[in-house]
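Figure 2 data, in text form.
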Amino acid sequence: MPKKPATPRKPSPNPAMPDQPVTPPETAAATTVRESAVRSGTFREKSAGLAALRKTLRAFAAIPVVLSTAAFAVPQEAIPPGGIALTVPAVLSGADPFPDAAPVPAVPAAVAASAASPSSGKTGDAPAELSAGRHAAVPSEQHRELQKQLMVWIDALAKQEAFRHWAGAEIRLDPLGPGTHGWLATLTDPDAGEPVGYLVVYAEDGPEGGYRLGEYGLGASPLFAEPVALRSLRENGLLPPSGEYAMTRVYRHPLAAAWKVRVDGSLHWLDAKTGEELPLDERAWARAAPPAQIPSPAPGETVAAVLLGEPFDPYERLPWLTGEAPLSAEPPQTILERLRKGLPVRFVAEPFGDPVLYALPVVGYVAWSGGRIDLAFDQFGFRFVPLPLLRELGKFYQ
C-alpha cells in the first residue's frame, strides 16, 4: 500500500464519552479523522467520562417530559423525513441540569419521534415501540413479523454470556433514514433503564419479503444515542442561543452512519456512534455508496461461538502509513486465528475518501452456525459487523 503522509488531527472536545480503550474522550476523534497517534497509557483517564455518560443516559430515561415539551420548536417544514426537532432547555447552556436519577423502567423518549413528517405508509418511515403500548408505525402484520424476527436473533445471541443482558430487554424501533428500508432496534434493560445494545435490521426486497440482520452492538452507548449527540453539540459549541436545531439520522453502512444536524442554517455531521463531528458535506457523504447486501443468518441458525479479547490502541503502530502489506481476509482464517491467539488486528477504512479515516481495533467475533462471521471492533462499546462487509469497506493490518 503506498505510503501516506500523516494528517494533523485536532483534539476531541468531547470529554464525557464512555470508557474506550482506543483513545481518551478528549482525542476520540482519532478514530474518525486523521489525528496524531495516541498512546495506550491514557486508558485510566476515561472512567470519569464513562460515569458521566451513564448518568446522562439514566437521566434521559427518567425525564422524557422535559424534552417532549419542546419537541417541535423548529418549523416542521424544515425537518426532513426521519428527522428530530428539538429545543434544548436553557439550563443546558450552564451547569449540568441532570441530577443523579434512580433507575426507572425505560420510557421511549419523545425526542426519538418526529411528527414533522407524516408517515408515507412504507415500512420504516416512523418509529415504533415493540414493548410499549403505543401504536406501531408499521402495518400490524409487518409489525408482528418484524418483532418475531428480531426476537429470533436476540434470543440466539442472549444465550451467550456476553449478550446475557439482552434477555428480556425492551425494544424501541427508529427509522434509519430515507432510502434504507431499515430500522434501528435499541435494546434497554427494563430494570436499570439503560441501553444494553442495538441491532440494525433491513426489509428484504422481493416478493417473499422478510428481514435481514445488519450490524449490532453491545453497551450503554448504542448507535444514534441522542444524549451522546446532544453532549457533542454542547461541547463543540454548536448550540445557538435559541437552543433550536434539527437532527436527521442518515445511514449507508456501519462506517457511514451519522447525525445530520442543521443549526441556524448551517449543516454539521456527527458520527452516529461516538458523536464526534465529521468534516463532511453533502458531496462527501454521497461518496459513501451503499455496499452490497450481506446474507442474514438463516432461519434456525444459532450462535456457534463468541470470542471477545482485550482492547488495544490501534495507533500504537501505523502500518497503513508505513507501507506495510495488509492482512488477507479471504478466507477469514488468517484474521480469526490471530484473534484466537490474542494478536492485534487493526481495521482501517476511508469511507468518504480523504476527509475521514477510521482506525479501529478488531477484538473478537461472533460465528453463526450457518457460516456467517461478524467481527467485533471496539468503539465506545463492541460493534459486530459482517466480515464480508468489512472486506469491502477497508483493509486489515497487524
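Caption note: The longest strand covers residues 358-368.
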